[in-house]
């Protein structure tokens, strides 16, 4: 991807929150059906095969009453009925086999539909722009990947099959019934028309209730994510009941709307059952009278009733299929809403389009890309790219930035130029905009005006994956991911040599931690690294960044967490790294700033002064005050 396309791929400002669905109406229902068809399209061949098998099975089923009539007529006339009996048996066996095959094919396509939807969603979510994710609720996104896609599986191909087969077989049955006796058919249709009216009235209500149920399921995810994300705090503050209340409310809402949907489904099912019973009685009455008057024979009435028997489940199937389509459409709308959120890479969209047609497996994924690079191969290449790269200079030219349109500006015409190599410390009061400098360099956000330059080139002209591969970033609240130490250290995809790994572990004093653990690098660090101490998490994050061999290291120093010995060791590590890498530190320690080659003092989103410690002590009052009061002494 070119730099230009990277720029085009990303929208200008933070996207409006879209993860919370708008209430459903006819428009929502229409777009739901469109979205559902979009999910089914890649599986159309298999779905068609399943439908055809099911249909042929049903047609064979339809021929059974005629064959039965023939058996009865032959026997009534005293003729041998062996031939028609064999035909009838074959029809029964072949019909059942084809129906089974059709069901299996539809199940297979359902699994593929749900797998493709999950892959596309996961891919999309991981590529979402940072401001977009900030505007959504992770728990709700998780519910869409897990719960809504499951609804797709349960409903989509079966619902389509039920609706299509149900319709065709109903029409065919009605035609055959008309051939047998038009009067009885008119009587039947008059009763059956009632079902059509009920279904038309009830179906949209089922769709709306399902959407509300899924929204409530999303809220359960949100509440759970909130509580588990700060589990210790919730416990320490005795907030379990309070948090549970939100979960209970959402669960209750899901139950209420689920019951609502079930109620409407019951209405349509009952209507169809009643209609079937009534039509039997009416056909028996009218048919009996017509047999008595000699208008039709007994065998015709029996065949007609057999068709009516066959029609009953078809009507039920049709009604159920329409209800299921509403459920599937509701899920498809929620999935589509995630797919409409802004992502960072244009090539990602291409990737997911291709993935849509792919089953699982890396080989298949590569094949779908026509041998082009997948994220996996890109990562591997990136690992190779990292070696022997020159450090990068960094410059801000009159950068102004607000996190959201209309929100107060966090940067006001920020300008500075930092040469390649060396250690630059950013200091300033809390909220001055220091961390925001890093976020703009990483392109988590784009400035409203001005330019951020890396290696002399606007960051918007860097291909985004290369930009980030060039940077080692250590956040203040260092995130350690669930998994092993090794997983965390190699998160960037680079595979370090044993020697390199040992060097970095030594520099960050993680070697002691690993030596202490029986499982070494394969030690499980727990959810969010909860089994490590704060200082260990910090060191894992620094080691992870160093293993990328970055051209620029961004270190958002934690305000606490490191003991004096580790603190001194890390200071030495940073100083050594700064010899051949550009290192930017948001500094909270005096010991870091005093060793820095230059210090940028920020205040209320502006650069106030740039200089060395001695220089700034002499000429900048704010810096003097910060140095004597706020900066921690290492
Ligand atoms: N994702 C965000 N969305 C909205 N506002 C934000 C976001 N991140 C930071 N801010 C706001 O931007 C301002 C600058 O934040 P920033 O994190 O850059 O400050 P800082 O100088 O690094 O502060 P500290 O030293 O406390 O970490 C603050 O007022 C903060 O509330």
UniProtKB/TrEMBL annotation:
Keyword Ion transport on entry: no
Bias kind Low complexity: ranges: 13-23
Domain ABC transporter: 394-629
Domain of life: Bacteria
Pfam families referenced in this protein's UniProt entry, alphabetically: ABC_membrane, ABC_tran
Residues that span the membrane, as ranges: 47-66, 86-106, 159-176, 182-203, 291-310
UniProt keyword annotations, A-Z: ATP-binding, Cell inner membrane, Cell membrane, Membrane, Nucleotide-binding, Transmembrane, Transmembrane helix, Transport
SMART domains xref list: AAA
Protein name: ABC transporter ATP-binding protein
């Amino acid at each position: 991807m070119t730099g230009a396309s990277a720029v085009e791929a990303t929208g200008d400002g933070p996207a409006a929150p879209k993860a919370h669905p708008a209430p459903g109406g006819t428009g929502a229902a229409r777009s739901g059906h469109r979205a559902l068809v979009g999910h089914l399209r890649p599986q159309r061949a298999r779905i068609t095969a399943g439908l055809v098998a099911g249909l042929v099975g049903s047609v064979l089923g339809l021929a059974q009453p005629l064959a039965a009539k023939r058996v009865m007529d032959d026997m009534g006339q005293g003729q041998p009925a062996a031939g028609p009996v064999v035909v009838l048996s074959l029809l029964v066996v072949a019909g059942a086999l084809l129906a089974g095959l059709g069901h299996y094919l539809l199940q297979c396509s359902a699994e593929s539909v749900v797998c493709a939807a999950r892959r596309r969603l996961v891919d999309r979510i991981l590529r979402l722009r940072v401001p977009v994710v900030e505007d959504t609720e992770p728990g709700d996104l998780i519910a869409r990947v897990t719960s809504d896609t499951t609804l797709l599986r349960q409903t989509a191909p079966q619902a389509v099959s039920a609706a299509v087969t149900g319709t065709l077989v109903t029409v065919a049955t009605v035609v055959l019934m008309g051939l047998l006796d038009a009067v009885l058919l008119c009587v039947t249709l008059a009763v059956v028309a009632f079902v059509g009216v009920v279904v038309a009235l009830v179906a949209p209500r089922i769709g709306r209730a399902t959407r509300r149920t899924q929204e409530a399921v999303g809220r359960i995810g949100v509440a759970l994510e909130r509580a588990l994300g700060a589990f210790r705090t919730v416990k320490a503050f005795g907030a379990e009941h309070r948090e549970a209340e939100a979960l209970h409310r959402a669960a209750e809402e899901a139950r209420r709307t689920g019951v609502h949907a079930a109620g409407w489904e019951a209405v349509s099912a009952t209507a169809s059952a009643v209609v079937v019973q009534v039509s039997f009685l009416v056909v028996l009455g009218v048919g009996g009278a017509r047999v008595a008057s000699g208008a039709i024979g007994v065998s015709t009435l029996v065949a007609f009733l057999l068709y009516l028997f066959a029609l009953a489940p078809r009507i039920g199937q049709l009604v159920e299929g329409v209800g299921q389509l509403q459920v599937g459409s509701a899920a498809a709308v929620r999935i589509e809403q995630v797919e409409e959120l802004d992502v960072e890479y244009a090539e990602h969209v291409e990737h997911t389009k291709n993935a849509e047609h792919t089953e699982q497996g890396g080989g298949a994924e590569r094949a779908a890309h026509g041998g082009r690079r997948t994220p996996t191969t890109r990562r591997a290449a990136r690992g190779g790219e990292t070696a022997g790269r020159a450090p990068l200079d960094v410059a801000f030219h009159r950068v102004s930035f607000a996190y959201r349109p209309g929100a107060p500006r966090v940067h006001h015409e920020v300008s500075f130029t930092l040469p390649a190599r060396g250690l630059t410390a950013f200091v300033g009061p809390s909220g001055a905009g220091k961390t925001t400098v890093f976020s703009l360099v990483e392109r988590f956000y784009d400035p409203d005006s001005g330019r951020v330059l890396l290696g002399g080139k606007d960051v918007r002209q860097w291909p985004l994956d290369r930009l980030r591969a060039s940077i080692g970033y250590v956040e203040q609240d260092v995130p350690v991911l669930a998994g092993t130490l090794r997983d965390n250290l190699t998160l960037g995809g680079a595979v370090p040599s044993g020697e390199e790994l040992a060097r970095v572990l030594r520099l960050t004093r993680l070697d002691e931690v690993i030596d202490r653990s029986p499982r070494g690098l394969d030690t499980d660090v727990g959810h969010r690294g909860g089994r490590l101490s704060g200082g260990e998490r910090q060191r894992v994050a620094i080691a992870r960044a160093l293993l990328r061999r970055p051209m620029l290291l961004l270190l958002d120093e934690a305000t606490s967490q490191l003991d004096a010995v580790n603190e001194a060791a890390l200071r030495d590590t940073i100083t050594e790294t700064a010899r051949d890498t550009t290192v930017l530190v948001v500094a909270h320690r005096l010991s870091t700033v005093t060793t820095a080659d230059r210090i940028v003092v920020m205040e209320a989103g502006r650069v106030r002064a740039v200089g060395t410690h001695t220089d700034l002590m002499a000429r900048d009052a704010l810096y003097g005050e910060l140095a004597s009061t706020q900066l921690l002494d290492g």
